Amino acid sequence: MEHAWRHAGACPGAQAVARGAAATPESLWAAYAARCRDNLHVVLAMSPVGEPLRARCRNFAGLATSTVIDWFQPWPEQALRSVATAQLQARRAGIRRAALCTVQLEERSMRCAQCACAAVRGCACRDTGS
Predict the structure, then answer these.
(1) Three-class SS string for 64-78?
(2) Of the residues 11, 29, 37, 42, which has the maximum number of CB atoms within 10 A of its CB?
(3) Is 115 in a helix, a strand, or coil?
(4) Count of CB atoms within 10 A of residue 118's CB?
(5) Which among 81, 130, 127, 123 has a CA at the least distance from the CA of 104?
(6) Residue 16: how many CB atoms within 10 A of its CB?
(7) What's the longest Cα–Cα distance across the chain?
(8) Residue 48 neighbours by CB under 8 Å, 6+ apart
(9) What is the pTM of this model?
(10) Measuring CA to CA, how many Å separate 29 from each of 5, 25, 130?
(11) pLDDT tens digits for 14-72?
């Protein structure tokens, strides 16, 4: 197996030496441990109900501070509707604000165009409340 690694350039020891590590057993072991630490992923599944999870989180603080928790449970239909409704209301409010800004911009543009036209004609621009 080691022979095949060397031909493919994938031998972990050869890679560590190529990166500048000494070819001693200790440095190769340290490179191996670092590679394992960088590439190791653990999936831990447990029930969130009851005292056991709380006890584990108290005893092993890393469970709560250094992990990503994905809840793989179906959502009730009411919860899905509630989230969807909230998202849609927020987007509708944003659309209303954008429409209002567009109308105000159009009104200001019209006033500026009228003033420019009056200036070209030599007339005094009257204040339109802008």
Answers:
(1) HHCCCCCCCCCCCHH
(2) 11
(3) helix
(4) 13
(5) 130
(6) 20
(7) 92
(8) 71
(9) 0.30
(10) 17, 6, 75
(11) 677 777 777 788 877 888 888 888 888 877 777 777 888 888 888 888 877 777 777 67
